[in-house]
Design goal:
The structure holds 2 protein chains of 2 kinds. Chain A has helices spanning about 1-20, 25-65, 70-90, 95-130, 135-150, 160-195. Chain A is mostly helical. Chain B is mainly alpha-helical. Chain B has 6 helices and 2 strands, in the order αααααββα. The chains are: A mainly alpha, B mainly alpha. Chains A and B meet through α1, α2, α3, α4 and α5 of A and α1, α2, α3, α4 and α5 of B.
């Protein structure tokens, strides 16, 4: 079973990759599209299984009367309630729009708003706990960018605005490019390790 | 059929309640914040599951089987088997069978990752760094900005170079020149992360202002 899993992963990966590298060979592109459609279907099914698994975990918490089982009950009510509403109406229906605008979007936006407070707190803690070269550069840059982009009551300071623009468009771009290239090289290597069978995250060790 | 209540008012009131529940985290982790998070998790999971059903499983799996069972089965036979094996992951005894479709998804995903990393990030970023030396931008621009971008890119990459040799006592040590260059790379990493922090902080602040404005508007409309 483990060898078969590795063979399936490597074969699927190589066939999909071939479609990207040889777009002029229509057979390879057709196979790639077919395989990606299959993967999409299986991913959608995995999403449903994931939701069921979440429900199972919280049902067990309620059955064992674990701490916080009230939260689990609320979670289950909303999980099945919203899923049933989604099945009866469609995701574009007014009821689902109400759910989106009344629950999901406000909670997401509010969590982002809470981030404003926690980030400020984290920035202050960083300076108090580890005031080294990188931390100082980090905080100074953040302060400079915020000063340069915010609308101040007494008007913008031209020098600060120009310097912050230059830092954003040149220095930060250089660093971001280095980080992005590093991430891309890491992703490339991880993907290749899966295709060579060196890494088997699907449990085929 | 029209709904028996004002939809926008109901959405506004619900939005107000959930906003206050989440913002209560500012005074510390509490019952209302946790309750809102569990409601959000359950509702999100249910919403995503219904979207997966309507947008993927129904049109691409169920409808082909219902409209033309023989032709449909040949089209979706393999993913159907895969889905059955994935469902087996719910049972601890049969979970091993789910390894095969997961291997398929991981393999296809790895190929998409490789193609995406090459064509979406690696080539465009390298080309962007080369284009910073475009002569049409002017000599001074190239000498200052182009060199700064190149230095930033290279020094940041060097910072993440962890190749080392063993010292006589067995402990690992990077080459001295790499150590110096990596120290310079820390400057660019600090600047980049500071800029990202400022961007995220601005977005968070905008979200906070938007939430407060929506509450004020709701009371204004009542």
């Amino acid at each position: 079973m483990r060898i078969l899993a590795a063979v399936i992963a490597i074969a699927a990966g190589l066939l999909v990759l071939a479609g990207y590298f040889f777009p002029e060979i229509s057979v390879l592109v057709t196979i790639q599209t077919l395989l990606l459609n299959w993967a999409l279907l299986m991913l959608a099914a995995a999403t449903l299984v994931g939701a069921l698994n979440l429900a199972a975990v919280h049902t067990n918490k309620i059955r064992r009367r674990e701490k916080g089982n009230l939260y689990s009950a609320v979670l289950l009510v909303f999980l099945f309630g919203v899923f049933m509403l989604g099945l009866i109406f469609k995701p574009g229906h007014e009821v689902m729009r109400l759910l989106l605008n009344g629950l999901l979007l406000p909670v997401e936006a509010s969590l982002m708003a809470v981030l404003a407070v926690t980030l400020l707190y984290a920035g202050v803690r960083l300076l108090r706990r580890r005031a080294d070269f990188t931390s100082l550069i980090f905080v100074a840059t953040a302060a400079l960018i915020l000063l340069g982009s915010a609308t101040l009551p007494f008007g913008n300071i031209p020098v600060v605005t120009s310097i912050s623009l230059w830092v954003k468009q040149v220095l930060a771009v250089g660093g971001a490019r280095g980080i992005l290239i590093g991430v891309a090289l890491g992703s490339l290597l991880t993907g290749l390790r899966v295709l060579f069978g060196a890494d088997r995250p699907y449990g085929g060790n | 059929m029209p709904l028996p209540f004002d939809l926008d008012l109901f959405a506004g009131l619900a939005s107000l309640i959930f906003t206050l529940m989440i913002l209560s985290y500012v005074i510390g982790d509490n019952f209302l914040f946790k309750l809102a998070l569990y409601i959000f998790t359950g509702a999100s999971a249910g919403y995503i599951a219904s979207v997966a059903w309507w947008q993927v499983l129904l049109p691409k799996l169920v409808l082909p089987l219902v409209s033309n069972p023989v032709q449909g089965l040949t089209l979706v036979f393999v993913p159907l088997i895969g889905i059955l094996l994935i469902v087996m992951k719910l049972s601890p005894r049969l979970a091993g069978a789910g390894r095969l479709p997961m291997a398929f998804i991981v393999g296809a995903g790895a190929a998409v990752t490789i193609a995406g990393a090459l064509s979406g990030t690696l080539f465009p970023q390298v080309m962007g760094t080369i284009n910073a030396f475009d002569a049409s931008r002017g000599f001074l621009n190239v000498m200052i900005n182009g060199v700064a971008v190149l230095l930033g890119t290279v020094l940041t990459l060097i910072y993440f170079h962890f190749g080392a040799y063993a010292k006589p006592d067995g402990s690992p040590r990077r080459l001295r020149v790499i150590e110096w260059l990596a120290w310079l790379g820390r400057f660019f990493i600090g600047v980049t992360l500071g800029t990202i922090f400022a961007g995220v902080y601005s977005s968070a602040l905008t979200a906070l202002i938007e939430r407060i404005t929506s509450i004020i508007n709701l009371f204004g409309n009542l």
